[in-house]
């Protein structure tokens, strides 16, 4: 297989959208979006991995179908997106539909033109989108898997925005291909493992039953915490890499779980003896903050015996990237990496290559292949199945601050 060198070369920019911000009278910034960029990114569906915020009071003027003025903006504190003072249902009732393209003009002069409006994070890495994700109290603009759009746009609390329909159904095909939903009812799933998205990772030289992944065993937002917590105990997990939480979040979840009679004792016991690393990551796996924080968590992991569990909220996006990275480090092939990544979509949505090939391919091509293109620093034309991902994985960890010795210690912990 072809090896990728450690020296990262720029990938040609794909300028699908533009963010034009006029700050003052003369300053303008143009942000191009590229899968190899090291800055733009915010949530993904796991960026949905956050407590539901309170819906603000509606503030806007709907003077015509497909036109909203006077929307007050506020910063999404977890991921740096831009919240607008209107609920998803109210926004859709004003002449917008998932799959449309929209123009957004902010009162500070920043404009987003022709961006997609989806009910999930279906854009390429770093591309702007407007999203009405189920469970969000408002619509939100963000950079898909990117940095803070709020900061990039130079906004302040109290600024306002106008949203105008650009083209109806401009992104209808993408919306339909990715529009899937799961339930939080255990009886809708074949087993506790499927419901909790709990499984052992595999591929390359990765040792069997040493590295596990799952939905959150502490945050019961999706009703999966008690199942994931029980399964981690059953698997003998000794150390947890918690990608989504910090101490305050865990304390809040634990209090709520206790109040509701939800048993998450196995997770809390590991935390009480220092066997949980709380990383509180965003979904931006290309950012320096993500990389450096992950590196510290992985270094801490090497100081503990396994088995190990990696989780976020759904165990799908942040967890998907981190497990892909660790599997790649152990020499997993494209097919092995894809099998594990796409298993989450089988578990949550029943989407497999046989049951729903069109959706399977659409999700794999956008989400999974996008991660591999970033990791290997290649463009859309690259043959991803021919690449050896060991060196790209090592380079990622090197650039995150890990030494060769620390990377080798990590491999020794998880490889057979």
From TrEMBL:
Keywords: Membrane, Transmembrane, Transmembrane helix. InterPro entries: Prot-tyrosine_phosphatase-like (IPR029021), Tyr/Ser_Pase_IphP-type (IPR026893), Tyr_Pase_AS (IPR016130). GO terms for molecular function: phosphoprotein phosphatase activity. It comes from the Bacteria. The chain crosses the membrane at residues 12-31. The keyword Transmembrane applies. This is Tyrosine phosphatase family protein. It comes from Denitrobacterium detoxificans.
């Amino acid at each position: 297989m072809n090896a990728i060198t450690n020296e990262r070369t720029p990938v040609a920019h794909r300028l699908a959208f533009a963010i034009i911000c006029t700050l003052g009278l003369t300053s303008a910034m143009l942000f191009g979006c590229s899968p190899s960029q090291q800055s733009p990114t915010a949530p993904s569906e796991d960026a949905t991995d956050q407590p539901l915020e309170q819906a603000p009071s509606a503030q806007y003027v709907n003077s015509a179908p497909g036109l909203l003025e006077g929307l007050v903006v506020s910063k999404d504190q977890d991921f740096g997106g831009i919240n607008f003072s209107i609920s998803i249902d109210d926004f859709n009732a004003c002449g917008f539909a998932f799959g449309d393209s929209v123009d957004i003009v902010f009162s500070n002069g920043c404009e987003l033109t022709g961006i997609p409006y989806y009910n999930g994070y279906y854009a390429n890495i770093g591309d702007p989108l407007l999203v009405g994700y189920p469970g969000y109290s408002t619509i939100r603009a963000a950079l898909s898997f990117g940095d803070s759009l709020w900061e990039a746009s130079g906004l302040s609390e109290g600024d306002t925005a106008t949203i105008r329909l650009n083209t109806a159904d401009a992104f209808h095909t993408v919306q339909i291909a990715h529009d899937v939903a799961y339930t939080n009812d255990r009886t809708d799933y074949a087993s506790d493992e499927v419901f909790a998205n709990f499984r052992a990772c595999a591929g390359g030289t990765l040792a069997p039953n040493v590295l596990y992944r799952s939905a959150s065993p502490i945050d019961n937002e999706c009703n999966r915490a008690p199942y994931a917590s029980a399964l981690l105990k059953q698997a003998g997990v000794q150390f947890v890499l918690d990608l989504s939480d910090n101490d305050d979040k865990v304390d809040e979840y634990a209090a709520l779980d206790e109040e509701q009679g939800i048993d998450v004792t196995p997770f809390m016991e590991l935390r009480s003896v220092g066997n949980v690393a709380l990383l509180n990551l965003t979904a931006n796996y290309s950012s320096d903050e993500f990389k450096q924080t992950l590196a510290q968590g992985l270094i801490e992991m090497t100081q503990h015996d396994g088995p190990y569990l990696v989780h976020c909220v759904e165990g799908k996006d942040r967890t998907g990237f981190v497990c892909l990275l660790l599997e790649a480090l152990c020499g997993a092939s494209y097919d092995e990496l894809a099998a594990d990544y796409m298993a989450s979509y089988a578990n949550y949505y029943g989407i497999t290559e046989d049951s729903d090939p069109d959706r399977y391919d659409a999700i794999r091509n956008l989400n999974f292949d996008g991660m591999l293109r970033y990791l290997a620093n290649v463009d859309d034309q690259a043959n991803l199945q021919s690449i050896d991902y060991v060196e790209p994985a090592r380079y990622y960890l090197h650039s995150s601050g890990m030494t060769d010795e620390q990377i080798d210690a990590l491999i020794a912990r998880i490889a057979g």
